């Protein structure tokens, strides 16, 4: 029988557990700002290196938000109690390209349909602005285009007005885009692909603006299925 050696206990895990316990007891609430790094490390009796590792873990679990220059803030942990195990699993387990894309397609198609049904004027403005940024971004710049693409899809998720789906989508999208960036060839070298991408996003926006639920779902599914095949073959 083959056994694996037991990993030694790591101090940062105690820090994570203690902060999570404060959240469960409602002694830390959404929007609360944690103490500064030096002060918090001193209160916990750990090094700043250990504290940073704990905060990175909490950030991956979507329990806190680190805002450079402002500090670390507690997020809505009631919803995150469901999202947390999934986020952790995705960060440590090997997931197939197809599995992640199947989940993304399922979530985003539903988001597009809900956005077409529920989007208000403000939502439509945000999606239109995101589309404008996407059109202006340079396809040759993989990071710039990726950021614009994520922003466009995230604005649609916001317009769905379903917090749970938005969080789930955000969790999966982060890992999907990491896989795409790892492919290192995110640029669109053919004019036909550039036109296809621009037209796809425009069709999705127009369907949502016209509150055409069926067309919004169809356009989103068609676009994502095409993108899935393209990136799989990179």
Your description of this structure?
The chain is mainly α and 234 residues long. The protein folds into 2 domains: 11-77, Winged helix-like DNA-binding domain superfamily/Winged helix DNA-binding domain (Arc Repressor Mutant, subunit A), CATH 1.10.10.10; 94-232, Four Helix Bundle (Hemerythrin (Met), subunit A) (Up-down Bundle). It is built from 10 helices and 2 strands; from the N terminus they run αααββααααααα. It has helices at 11-24, 37-44, 48-60, 77-92, 97-118, 121-136, 142-160, 163-182, 191-209, 213-232, and strands at 64-67, 71-74. It has a two-stranded antiparallel ribbon. The chain is elongated, with a radius of gyration of 20 Å. It starts with 10 loop residues before the first helix and ends with a helix. The model has no long low-confidence stretch (mean pLDDT 80).
Characteristics:
single chain; about 230 residues; Arc Repressor Mutant, subunit A; Four Helix Bundle (Hemerythrin (Met), subunit A); 2 domains; two-stranded antiparallel sheet
The CATH topology of the largest domain is given as Four Helix Bundle (Hemerythrin (Met), subunit A)
Enumerate the strands of the largest sheet in spatial order, edge to edge or round the barrel.
Answer: 1-2
User: In terms of structural class, how would the helical and strand content be classed?
Assistant: mainly alpha
CATH top level of the largest domain is: Mainly Alpha
Name the shape in a single word: elongated
**How is the quaternary structure best described?**
single chain
Give the CA-CA distance, first to last residue: 41 Å
Strand residues, percent: under 5%
- Which bin fits the share of residues in helices? over 70%
CATH H-level homologous superfamily name of the largest domain: GntR ligand-binding domain-like
CATH architecture group name of the largest domain = Up-down Bundle
Which whole number gives the mean pLDDT? 80
Q: Provide the domain count.
A: 2
Query: Which segments are poorly predicted (pLDDT under 50) over 5 or more consecutive residues?
Result: none
How would a textbook summarize the main sheet? 2 strands, antiparallel
* Record field, number of beta strands: 2
């Amino acid at each position: 029988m083959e056994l694996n050696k037991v990993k030694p206990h790591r101090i940062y895990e105690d820090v994570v557990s203690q902060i999570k316990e404060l959240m469960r007891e409602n002694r830390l609430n959404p929007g609360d700002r944690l103490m500064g790094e030096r002060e918090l490390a001193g209160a916990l009796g750990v090094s700043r290196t250990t504290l940073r590792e704990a905060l990175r873990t909490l950030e991956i679990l979507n329990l806190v938000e680190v805002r450079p220059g402002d500090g670390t803030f507690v997020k809505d942990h009631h919803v995150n109690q469901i999202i947390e195990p999934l986020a952790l699993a995705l960060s440590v387990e090997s997931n197939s390209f197809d599995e992640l894309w199947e989940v993304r397609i399922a979530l985003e198609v539903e988001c597009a349909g809900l956005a077409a049904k529920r989007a208000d004027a403000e939502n439509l403005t945000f999606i239109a602005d995101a589309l404008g940024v996407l059109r202006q971004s340079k396809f040759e710049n993989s990071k710039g285009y990726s950021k614009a693409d994520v922003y466009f899809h995230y604005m649609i998720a916001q317009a769905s007005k379903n917090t749970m789906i938005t969080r789930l989508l955000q969790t999966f999208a982060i890992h999907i885009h990491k896989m795409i960036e790892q492919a290192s060839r995110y640029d669109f070298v053919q004019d036909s692909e550039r036109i296809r991408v621009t037209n796809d996003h425009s069709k999705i926006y127009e369907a949502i603006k016209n509150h055409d639920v069926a067309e919004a779902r169809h356009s989103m599914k068609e676009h994502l299925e095409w993108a899935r095949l393209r990136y799989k073959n990179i």
